[in-house]
Amino acid sequence: MSAACQYLSLCKKSEVSEGKAIKIEKNGLTLAVFNLNGEYYVTDDVCTHGPGSLSEGEINGDEVECDFHNGAFNIKTGEPTAPPCMIPLKTYKTQIESDEITIEI
After folding, report:
1. Is the residue at 99 inside a domain?
2. In CATH, what number is assigned to the domain containing residue 26?
3. Assign residue 70 a region: left if phi > 0, alpha if psi is -120 to 50, beta otherwise?
4. Domain limits for position 90
5. What is the average pLDDT score of the chain?
6. Do residues 13 and 99 lie in contact, with contact meaning Cβ atoms separated by under 8 Å?
7. 89 lies in a domain?
8. Mind listing the pLDDT tens digit for each residue in 24-65?
9. Cα 44 to chain centroid, rounded
10. Residue 33 phi/psi, 5° resolution?
């Protein structure tokens, strides 16, 4: 028997501007919440290559460039798209409940 899914509320949609990201620290997680054309995506905030914060990185289309070593990831899939990043980024299943962005944990 599988455990029931739990959801963690992160922030309101209005807190994440179009084409931007914000950092959320909750329940021991440090996350980046992205708004790409009104669709919301959540990944771990820390780059898998170094101490860079992806919520502070530059967003180009569906990619985010880390501000530390300029590696990049696909925001939707977590896959690395530019070196030196080689390890995929953890992504979270995102849902909108009323005006709240939530993730499955």
Report:
1. yes
2. 2.102.10.10
3. left
4. 7-104
5. 94
6. yes
7. yes
8. 999 999 999 999 999 999 999 999 998 899 999 999 999 999
9. 5
10. -110, 120
